[in-house]
Amino acid sequence: MHWLSFFIGALIGWLVCWLIDYLFCRPRRIAAEQALRDQLQRCNEECTSLKAQLGNTQDLRARLSSSGAEMDTLKAQFAGTKDLQVRLDGANAELAAFKAKLSEAKEVQPTEAGDLQVQLQEAHAEIDGLKARLSEAQGLPAQVDGAQAELQALKAKLSHVEDLEGNLAFWQTRSSQQGLEIERLRTQLSSGARAALGGVVGACLATAAMGLPAAPATDAGIVAAPLTTAVPQPDDLILIEGIGPKINELLNKAGIVSFAQLAATSLQRLNQILDAAGPRFRLADPQTWPEQAALARDGKWEAFQALQGTLKAGRRD
Fold it and tell me: Distance (Å, rounded) from C-alpha 290 to C-alpha 303?
């Protein structure tokens, strides 16, 4: 009878655990994994869109380099107009000298007067050529201004491209975090189901060993082993607007390595850390760092991005 009770109790415990896992644990686990997969898919789609927008970065930079070279050429040509002006002034002086000689030539032999007349005509031709070149050179400032305007437009586009690169890095980091969250949830759910099954089987074995009839198991009678709290991984504090690699290193040395810790740190403490690091770090303003960290800690990424859109170097515009 004792072996029969043991066998029946173990069989009933296994059936109850299987039913609980099938009816309660498995649907929740599947729903949670599906939600995380959907979030990961959205993140991947946004990363793909940002990569497509960054596809013309090389073209913009090539155009920027070409415009800079063209502007340098125009500046060199414009600088050459000064030499043309000097040559024109010299030609005018030479023409005045020829005219003086021509007036004196009336008193000299006709052959000398003819030579002077030829030289005077050559001087006139050279002056006309210099005037034509000077007229062409006067249009160079307008071309230089146009090249500078195009250069400024390309710089603005390049700045927008750099913003897109920052957004791409942010979404890639978020995608990686979502993948880690899926793996952590799978591990916790699996360990919780195994602990619950072990508790029910142990209770049935103890009942069979005592020779008592096994009591029917209910949801309230099954106590799952508590999940071990995982040690939180350090967060990438550079995602916070206003925090760069150097300030991130300062915060880590001060024991602030996660969004939760940064959100709980007072402004006075943050200012003390920056002041102790030297004058170059005192220009940083940590006024909005705890607020941004709180949104990142709670996973409110849309509100996080909306807040950062109103900030400049961590300060509100």
Answer: 14
Dist. CA 103–CA 94, nearest whole Å: 14
224 and 21 Cβ atoms separated by less than 8 Å: no
Instruction: Evaluate whether 242 touches 270 at the Cβ level (below 8 Å).
Output: no
Give mean pLDDT in consecutive 10-residue pieces for the chain, a chain of 317 residues: 81 90 87 89 84 74 78 76 76 78 60 66 79 72 69 63 58 63 63 53 46 41 40 82 93 94 94 92 91 94 92 79
- Let me know if residue 218 belongs to a domain: no
Residue 265 forms part of a structural domain: yes
| Residue 227, domain member (yes or no) | no
pLDDT at 72: 81
Domain extent, residue 247, equals 237-316
| Amino acid making up residue 38 | D
What is the pLDDT at residue 252? 95
**pLDDT at res. 237:** 94
C-beta atoms surrounding 251 within 10 Å:
21
Q: Taking a C-beta distance cutoff of 8 angstroms, is the pair 237, 262 a contact?
A: yes
- What is the model's pTM? 0.32
Residue 76 belongs to a domain with what CATH number? Answer: 1.10.287
Around Cβ 234, how many Cβ atoms within 10 Å?
12
The H-assigned helical ranges of the chain are 2-20, 26-53, 57-105, 110-137, 140-210, 245-253, 259-263, 267-277, 289-297, 301-309
Task: Specify which residues 133 forms β-bridges with.
Answer: none
Domain count, the chain: 2
Are 138 and 184 in the same domain? Answer: yes
